[in-house]
């Protein structure tokens, strides 16, 4: 369902959506596995960056498992809801930088997993969309909130209300996707970016993300206060002392970390 891989020196974790027989459709079991995996990564201080990828070459994730849901009663759907929410918020709440590597289809809940990441890299042949209103529901994994924050109201409205699928190029032009990679190359590019990120201060990375995430939902004055608190938490950490020392000695830092 979910495979966690470690790369290089262990500071990069890859969270692999691994239900290829269903093109990574999110079943109740898979949602629970995703929530568990993200919880473990969030609690691991050695992790500096997370790449979310897929084991299926033609699908990142096609969204909720509608075959499973077709047999649900209303009570079943209510019971599943907190499990599904825990899966999506688990990705969103990871305290380190996250990169979605999207090749193939990223639809509905699959697009929402990508949107929960800080950066989305898509292969040129990828297809993205939030088609939920075409099947009588709405994006419920954060899509109505995250897409508006990422691209603005009008562009998010175009994506969500039309329910249509967008090419990777269109998604990039909308701001849904930050970077395009050659078809099939999203994972390689995401890991390359993760390696660049992981060279930096783990305390700095966590506090920069915290300041950005908490501040983005407030007015500017409140956001600057959040930034100041995160600055203090970083500036008086062992990482800051090591960073300055390494710069003066013209060597790579050996980060103490959180």
TrEMBL record:
State the reactions this protein catalyses.
Answer: a (3S)-3-hydroxyacyl-CoA = a (2E)-enoyl-CoA + H2O; a 4-saturated-(3S)-3-hydroxyacyl-CoA = a (3E)-enoyl-CoA + H2O
SUPFAM superfamilies the UniProt entry points to:
ClpP/crotonase
Q: Which PROSITE patterns match?
A: ENOYL_COA_HYDRATASE
Q: Which GO terms describe its molecular function?
A: enoyl-CoA hydratase activity
Keywords, sorted A to Z: Lipid metabolism, Lyase
Q: What is its EC number?
A: 4.2.1.17
An example Gene Ontology biological process: fatty acid beta-oxidation
- Carries keyword Phosphoprotein? no
PANTHER family attached to this UniProt entry: (7AS)-7A-METHYL-1,5-DIOXO-2,3,5,6,7,7A-HEXAHYDRO-1H-INDENE-CARBOXYL-COA HYDROLASE, ENOYL-COA HYDRATASE-RELATED
Family stated for the protein in its record: Belongs to the enoyl-CoA hydratase/isomerase family.
Annotated protein name in UniProt: enoyl-CoA hydratase
**Originating organism:** Yimella lutea
């Amino acid at each position: 369902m979910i495979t966690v891989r470690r790369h290089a020196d262990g500071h990069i974790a890859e969270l692999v959506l691994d239900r290829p027989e269903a093109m990574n459709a999110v079943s109740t079991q898979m949602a629970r596995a995703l929530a568990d995996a993200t919880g473990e990564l969030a609690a691991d201080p050695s992790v500096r960056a997370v790449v979310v990828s897929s084991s299926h070459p033609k699908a990142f994730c096609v969204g909720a498992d509608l075959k499973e849901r077709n047999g649900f009663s209303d009570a079943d759907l209510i019971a599943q809801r907190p499990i599904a929410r825990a899966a999506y918020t688990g990705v969103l709440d990871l305290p380190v930088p996250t990169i979605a590597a999207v090749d193939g289809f990223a639809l509905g809940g699959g697009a929402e997993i990508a949107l929960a990441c800080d950066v989305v890299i898509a292969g040129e042949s990828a297809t993205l969309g939030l088609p939920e209103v075409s099947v009588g529901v709405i994006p419920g994994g954060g899509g109505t909130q995250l897409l508006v924050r990422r691209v603005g109201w009008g562009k998010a409205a175009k994506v969500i209300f039309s329910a249509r699928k967008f090419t990777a190029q269109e998604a990039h032009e909308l701001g849904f996707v930050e970077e395009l990679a050659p078809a099939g190359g999203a994972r390689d590019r995401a890991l390359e970016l993760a390696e660049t990120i992981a060279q930096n201060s783990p305390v700095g990375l966590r506090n920069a993300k915290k300041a950005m995430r908490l501040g983005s939902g407030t007015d500017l004055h409140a956001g600057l206060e959040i930034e100041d608190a995160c600055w203090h938490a970083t500036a008086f950490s062992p990482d800051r002392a090591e960073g300055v020392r390494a710069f003066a000695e013209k060597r790579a830092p050996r980060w103490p970390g959180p």
